[in-house]
Description:
46% helix, eight-stranded parallel beta sheet, globular, five-stranded parallel beta sheet
Amino acid sequence: MAELPLARDFPPADEAAWKALVEKALKGAPFASLESKSYDGIVIEPLYGRASDADVVPGRAPGAPWEVIQRIDIADGKTANRQILEDLNNGASGLSLVFQGSAGDYGHALPPSEAVLKEALEDVHFEWGVPIELQLGPLCKDAALMLANLVQQRGLAPSDVNIRFGFDPIGVLAANGWNNVVWPDMANVFASLVGEMIAQGFKGPFAVGDGRPVHAAGGSDAQELAFALSTALAYVRAAHDGGVPLDTARRLIFFRLAADQNQFLTTAKFRALRKLWSRIEEACGLEPEPAFVTAETAWRMMTKRDPHGNIVRGTIAGLAAAVGGANAVTVLPFSAAVGLPDAFARRIARNTQTILLEESNLYRVADPAAGSGAMEALTSALCLEAWKLFQEIEAAGGPAEALRQGLIQSDVAEARAAREKAIARRKDSLIGTSDFPDLAEAEISVLDGAPSAPCNDEAERTAEPLQRMRLSEPFEALRDRSDQYRAAHGARPKIFLACLGRPADFNARASFAKSLFEAGGIEAIAAQGAQSSDDMLKAFKASEASLVCLCSSDKVYASGGADAARQLREAGAKHIYLAGKPGELETELKSAGVERFVAAGADALETLRGAYTNLGA
């Protein structure tokens, strides 16, 4: 059969032709307007060519699926056991046990109780090689030893179980600002613990370089990488100083990173970690070996409002980590920010990964990102930025000393401030919260469970903690004000959208205004279709709103915006907004009664907080 060249009717494409079309579409705007920057200052281009020096980043073995790890943070042993058995019998590969005070304690966690641990792990067959990963808090020694004792009580050979013990005193220091013993004294305790575990026959890994404290506090990708790398190196040094051969010491470490909804940067971050750790191994005189890297979807992207949107964010994050070569992935249940997730939310988290594995077959390619110009460029750029920060931490004396000096906190605070500014201006979007909210959303089900006990607040802090954040919190605070207003007045606060002209004139700006004000819990009311001035005023009075936002095109504003503002003011509008930038009409519109102009890129939080002030709420 003759070949059918599908491209024969299309002229060959090249970068010059693409740029010519772009310049035409930009209508005089600079090409740089298509570029963006990450929080590390990395320029993200609109188009990349094929990578000329692409190579596969060693990670999971080709064709090997990643581990589907289910997070267990239920304090009651019997309830935890039911959930564990359900997870393991329905697609989960292993478990991540979250203990109080750990970097992953987001309000609910296991207590360091041997009875609870034994009850929770009843009928879990360690000898079958079920991966069990520990997220340890200040009482990490006790919890890890409890699990080791449980293995011994069952008469199992420690070498036959698959436990990642996850000692992380530096991560505890970063998350809580204190530890039972300061580093480097803790290094001796750490080395002793690891030596004891090795003597018992456990194969590890025993310690984790965990970047999540930096990520959860608003840090950048390079900052997270630098912290995880420096922490891992500190543990290697401690084990080596305790008598463990260097070649063995580096195998005692694994990594844990956050995966968020920025898909490409997340994939690049996981690839960059492997490259950077290989570079450190080479500097130690070792032949590089693939690091074991686990992923957990990011806490800071989780929302309380419209929490089902977290399913989409978790899917994107899980996919990005898997494509980046993660060996194990944990997806946070979509209701985690609301309360203690129930079995349904945990099933969705589990099935998210099952679909990626079994239906999308993502694991079958060794390094799907290899050769992509964009991914190779982002990976290389992240490596350079993270290496510089890593060197700064090393020059300060290591991560514990850098935390004590406030070096890491200062860098993270800078990235956090930039991130908070972008969220306030809705440049970074959280669908369902800062954009396209649903004021009529139904409540979701969560389990009853007391919050986990706080860390020992009376202990002396040896460093300022990295304060955990969720990006949606400022908008959620406004939605809480809306709920309080409704409880006091019987209805939500309202704003009337005065749509001028034809639908083609006002639809775009009316949609923008509705999304903006409802993100703060202020219900937007608008009549449908074209209206006369009399119809608009009747609709305004019927709405019982005291706030108004004019919505239309620049052309309609020029011909009738000022008149409409005057009529609305005379009809009783307390405060008038206008959707769009006024340009030369600003003086005229303000004289007619418009008091604020709202447009994309402006500080949405400031506008919304001001609206509550105007409402007298």
